[in-house]
Amino acid sequence: MDLVFADRGLHLGVLNALLTSGALAAADLVAIVESTGPDGPEDGYPGPGPRLARSLDLLHAVAVPANEVAAITRLYFDGGNEIYLLIEKTLDIDTGGESDDYNVTSLEGIQALSGLESLDLDGHGYRSAPLDLTPLAGHPRLSVLCLTGFCASAVALESLPQLRSLDAFHADLDDPEVPDRLAARGVAVRHSWRRERAARRATSARAAGQGNAGAVVPVNQASKNEPS
After folding, report:
1. Kind and range of the H or E element at 144?
2. Could you give phi then psi for residue 195, rounded to 5 degrees?
3. Positive or negative: CA dihedral 93, 97, 98, 102
4. What is the rounded CA–CA span in Å between residue 62 and residue 52?
5. What DSSP designation does 129 have?
6. How far apart are alpha carbons 177 and 154 in whole angstroms?
7. What is the percent of the chain with per-residue pLDDT over 90, rounded to a whole number?
8. What tens digit of pLDDT does each residue of 81-127 get?
9. Nearest by Cα to 102 from 4, 36, 35, 15
């Protein structure tokens, strides 16, 4: 059975993994991109132009074998990924692999990557709209996860049996207590909420120990009380 992922950005990430492993031939993907030519008046360097959108639509239609997808162990979306560079070299454009056209907006279907151990959603995994983490629920192998941007249904992370590392430092989870609960079960967690919470607790402890002399003054109020 062959697969096409609903989200174009996720599908590109899968194509990249298969390209770098040798399961997909670069020449075949180049031919697909070249088929969108010739350049129109809005195409060419530095881009992006209409040909990029057409190329991505065609690449999104490339069905990938389910057994090859299940064998992928790492998925990431760095701007330097081979798939982005192949597209831009073929089209003679240069966004540095940073076009928002590559962004991941949904993880629907990610359970098909049953062998996935590491998922890094930095780079093109960042987006302005919320990312629903529900598709990750119960994934049997995922052990290393990096999240960015606003993430909904964060509770799904607690159903990952093999999770041992969560980097959510640049993520905003809809349930900020999830990282603490994961840490309590032994997951290595990096998250800005934890750092801010620890700082607030330390400040409160100092204030309690020093009485009124150690009371916390909001920064904006402190600046008003400073002599001019």
Report:
1. strand 144-152
2. -65, -45
3. positive
4. 16
5. S
6. 9
7. 71
8. 999 999 999 999 998 888 899 999 999 999 999 999 999 999 888 88
9. 15
